Amino acid sequence: MGSGSSSYRPKAIYLDIDGRIQKVVFSKYCNSSDIMDLFCIATGLPRNTTISLLTSDDAMVSIDPTMPTNSERTPYKVRPVAVKQVSEKEELVQTVLTQVAEQFSRAFKINELKAEVASHLAVLEKRVELEGLKVVEIEKCKSDIKKMREELAARSNRTSCPCKYSFLDNNKKLTPRRDVPTYPKMLSCLEHMYHDLGLVRDFGMNPVTLKRWLLCVHDNYRHNPFHNFRHCFCVAQMMYSMVWLCGLQILAQPECNILSNLQPDGFKQIRQGMITLILATDMARHAEIVDSFKEKMENFDYSNEEHLTLLKMILIKCCDISNEVRPMEVAEPWVDCLLEEYFMQSDREKSEGLPVAPFMDRDKVTKATAQIGFIKFVLIPMFETVTKLFPVVEEIMLQPLWESRDRYEELKQIDDAMKEPDLCLLYALSWLQKKTKGLTRGDSDKSREKSRDGKKSEGNDLPP
Description:
The chain is mainly α. The chain has four domains: 2-81, Ubiquitin-like (UB roll); 83-161; 166-416, Catalytic domain of cyclic nucleotide phosphodiesterase 4b2b (Orthogonal Bundle); 420-454.
């Protein structure tokens, strides 16, 4: 036990500090750094100061737990190492480290990496800022779409029925009220069409990108009387209606969805298709396109790419010139805008000495003469051709064209009659005669019904 306990006994070292003996006691479990700190404290030097121990004959003693013990008669002298020597060592080490750092920098291109990391950080910070703005814009977009859907849901009783008028319980007919939509409302309606047809979902469109694209289309339209953004909206709305009316869901079939992946080849195909449809609206190719579609009508094949292209061309043509399909109070202002644009062009051509197309000359064209020929020889034959493939089009779109043709023909008769007094009087007499016949026929029908009712009542009064 005695020998075991003595092994844990602390070690004592005596130091000579300026002629004064200082005893320092430490455990054998202290390391060299701890012992050196004790010696520095005992001698009044700062900690971590490099010191050396010397015996009475100036022999150096290692500073560690196993250092030899001494007595008060043979104390160790403490001598701090010169600062100059330490500085030289530090300078040497610093030089070596600098050279090593330069070598590493050359080997791994640290500066370039730093610049690249800084650039990436700047891009990420900008992206985070943009994403924050997108979140705000997306929330606003969602709010607009929600309001539009609620409004459309509230009007579902009107849109589900193709009737032109609605009736109250007392059978009082209401005059339809049609507000000209503002540009923000038209943009919201276009967004709703893309969402309602499933295009945003099926093609993974970003709603914010869709909104920006629609705004870009709007901003790039010129302020012409007819060919403006409102015309663009009307064409899109008519195509939306025809897609729903005719049940065109061909892209819903995975095997026919050419836009499913949107690879570069697919993008080129989409762009080419858009160019083809835009060029199809050129009226110089009207007869060519309609005749080609008529030829394919006998054996129309939805799996034939050529047939489908012709169908898309004929549909975009129908939508492009579909104003007369709409109610009169909507269609007639568009006719005025179109004639105004034609007359502006012809006036400029006259002022510059250029030839003028007869249908654009304000001295030769009236609203009635312009529309009668256009409806009879362009619109009706084209929509009749579409009706053969989609019979539902006849009641919704072809019937309004027939009514519009009859209305403009009657208007032309009035215009012709106003030019010559004799014809005007003759037309007035003809009109009065028609009205008189109608009234006479109505009175005779009423008297006939009264007599029939009287006979029935007399028959009922007879005894059994």
